[in-house]
Each structure stands twice: as structure tokens, then as C-alpha cells.
Write a structure and sequence with these properties.
Layout (H helix, E strand, L loop, with lengths): L4 E4 L5 E5 L10 H37 L4 H34 L8 H8 L1
Antiparallel strand pairs: 1-2
Helix pairs in contact: 1-2, 1-3
Length: about 120
């Protein structure tokens, strides 16, 4: 990640790639894809956790501001329940994926580079 964009238009080498996704220093396409996929899954997981915590907090604020209204209280409870269920599913998805990999006979399904090399 030394350079964001590595474009050489006038030196004869042409386009080399964009950021860390460019094939530099002898990287294979599989390792670049594994790095990209790992980064994407990590980013999506972090965004999902932040979103679920936001849903739980807004549900708590809705409970506080419901002032005895039964419909508002029920809606806030549903919001908190949905947030907690989503957070549990999001966190447990890693373990579920690992379990499915063991059922299929893949020792480390989360290591994409090794998985692709074993499939070849």
C-alpha cells in the first residue's frame, strides 16, 4: 500500500495496477484475490457490527422516549431483538462457515489461497 495508484502512462511499461491489487513483486492472482476477499469480508463484518450496534442503541432510545406508549414500546423491543439477532448471526457466521468446511472435508475453508491451490 505504498502507492495508491501506480500508473505509468509515458514510460512504456503501461498500466501496472491499482493500489495493492496490482500484481507486484511476483504475487500470484490467487494471493491477490485472497487478500482482496479477506479485506472485503473484514470491512463488511465491521460495517455490519457497527450497524447492529446502531440498531440496538436506537431501539434503546426509542424505549426511553416511548413514555408508556405500548405500540412504541413494542416497536422498540422488536428493533432491539432484531439488532441482537443480527449481531449474533454476524459473529457466529465465521464459526458456521468453519463448521461447513469441516463437514465438506476442507481443513481450512477460510484460507482462500490454500483452498484454491488444493482445488487445482
Amino acid at each position: 500500500m505504498n502507492k495508491i495508484a501506480q500508473i505509468k502512462l509515458f514510460e512504456g511499461e503501461g498500466y501496472k495496477g491499482f493500489g495493492p491489487l496490482g500484481l507486484e513483486q511476483g504475487q500470484s492472482g490467487i494471493s491477490v484475490f485472497a487478500t482482496f476477499l479477506s479485506s472485503a469480508v473484514g470491512l463488511i463484518t465491521i460495517i455490519g457490527i457497527i450497524w447492529m450496534v446502531f440498531i440496538i442503541v436506537t431501539g434503546a432510545v426509542s424505549i426511553i422516549s416511548s413514555s408508556g406508549d405500548k405500540q412504541a414500546l413494542e416497536g422498540a423491543r422488536k428493533k432491539i431483538t432484531n439488532g441482537v439477532i443480527g449481531l449474533v448471526v454476524l459473529v457466529s457466521s465465521l464459526f458456521i462457515l468453519s463448521f461447513i468446511g469441516k463437514l465438506l472435508g476442507l481443513p481450512n475453508i477460510l484460507d482462500i489461497a490454500t483452498l484454491f491451490k488444493s482445488l487445482n
